[in-house]
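For reproducibility, we list the full input for the calcium ion complex.
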Amino acid sequence: MLLRLTLLLSVSSGALLANSFTFADFSSPANLGLVGDASVSSNLLRLTPALENKNGAAWYNSLVNVQAGFTTDFTFRISERGGFKPDWEPGVENDGADGFAFVVQAQGLNELGLFASGIGYYNIMNSLAVEFDTWANKPSYCEPNGNHVAIQSLGTLMNRPEHCAGTEFDGTFTNPNLAITTVADDLSNGTAYNARIVYSPGLFQVFLTDMSTPLLAANVNLANLLNLQNGQNAYIGFTSSTGGAWENHDIISWSYSEVPEPSTWLMIGAGLIAGGMIRRRA
Ligand SMILES: [Ca+2]
Ligand SMILES: [Ca+2]
Ligand SMILES: [Ca+2]
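The corresponding predicted structure, in tokenized form, follows.
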């Protein structure tokens, strides 16, 4: 059925094609914009290596239409943690840093935010980030622990990693956090974890391992929150960083599928009927 829908969409109109892509692995960097310390090797997208003070970003190198909704799936693995261990919250969860983020932004292909606590998305304007944070920063960041997932955005202003309002060296800000939760599984333990993000206008959901119950959800309308290009388009990808502690942040696979707009579904219906009529005649 899915195959038939795709075929009918292809023959009816190129403009109606659902925008989708799949990286079953990263044997080639084709269609990726790599920034900073991100690299592709050994079939992996390595956002940062397990070294001190690194940051990297990888963007799909074309704008995608996010306005009507999308689903994206990725598998990540965080390994070889090492470096500084803080004394304010000891424990395995604070070993290795800083995590990575899935980011939607309507700025450009060269975007890369700050390293260390910034997870590579701190200061990207006009963005929303889903951070997989593996390091508890200083108390003014309002982080629950060193192993949490959060949705962060300040709309068209520069994004920030704090989970509460505050004042830092670069100014006073409102709370950038839209949703946050701790994670039972240790994100940095070298396990390959499956994640899914499902957006429909008004609802942004994050799934981890369990694809039936969201780990995290927020009321988000991207077209209102961000200044999307042409009112509908954005770049999507990943950012990551290390600081005085580090780890490899790897993406193993990634797929994206734009959800057709309701008007498109009407066209699909028309296409199915037309397709049926053509087959009957033939
Ligand atoms: Ca955080
Ligand atoms: Ca950690
Ligand atoms: Ca952190």
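The first helix runs from residue 2 to 12. Confidence is low (pLDDT under 50) at residues 1-17. Both points were considered when choosing residues for closer inspection.
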